[in-house]
User: Fold this.
Amino acid sequence: MGAGRNFNKRFSVEAEYSYNHFSVPQQIITDSFGTNGISGLGRIAGDVHIWSLTVDPSYHYFETERWGGYVVGGGGFYRKVTLFRQAPTNCPNGDCGPPTNNLLTLSNNAGGINVGTGISRRVSDASNAKLFVEGRYVWIDNQPSPNNRAYLPANYRTGYFPVTAGVRW
Assistant:
């Protein structure tokens, strides 16, 4: 979500808050902690949460009465939190509920950038509301942190490609 200002028909700037959730693949967890998990506690589930506060200028290179195309890019502050939790143990296969206790929490703060493109379509002639779809590449310059020695990928530079759809007015 965000708020911004159109300076003219072609150029705008938006301050934006973003949140993304990813799961850590089970094979990576097994490679990092073994088949018995952390301290023999059994199956472990892992999640990565990334939130950001960025400033994103955009340039509208194509505009008709209904359709528009734009490029967007910017940068700001990103926080990556990696959580490992114990999976339920009262099930035959261990997959019958959400993970429970937090076993390990790692965080990494860094600057980052994003760049992408999108299209928009005006909802009606009588409205300024537009539906939009955009794709961006996000790159976060995570650096090694002494707090993240238990799981080194929490320190790795991060890149991902979110596709976003919504309404702006």
